[in-house]
Design a protein that fits this description.
The chain folds into two domains: 38 residues; 130 residues, CAP (Pathogenesis-related Protein p14a). With 176 residues, it is an alpha+beta fold. A hairpin with a 2-residue loop joins strand 3 and strand 4. Helix 3 packs across helix 4. The longest helix has 36 residues.
Amino acid sequence: MHEMTSCRRGTRLAHKMISRKAATAALLALATGSALTMPAARADNSRLNNSVVANVYTIQHQAGCTNDVKINPQLRLAAQWHTDDVLTNRNLDGDIGSDGSTSQDRANAAGYRGKASETVGINPAVAISGMEILNQWYYNPAYMAIMQNCANTQMGVWSDNSLDRTVVVAVYGQPA
């Protein structure tokens, strides 16, 4: 009788082990299948993008401007296009796109009517802070002139990152 109970325990133990292995394999297959079909996770950089607008507003007011800076969807789209281009094409490091386009070309293509200019920030890391962006732009005389220009009353900002690079583009507009 003792041998029979021992045999049953062994059989139950074997069934439990097989059930656990099957469950683990099923979970692994489900997780792998889900990972293959899930879209890539994208960071929500809206907080960073909005802080760039707020910082430019502050820089303008320190320069004596009295206007408000409004976010413009067409300028944001132009900024997104250039951010994607710079992030994808590592030989780009400024305002000219891989197709030779300028900030004005991209703003026009996005439907913006008015004069456009831009600032581009690139950080060789997965993230960038508002301070790092401002340090890049503040000490660049051409970029500082763009940020301080009181006629730039509209903006669009976009940022994106890869594992080893973050790009932030701000497109400034002077409505026609």
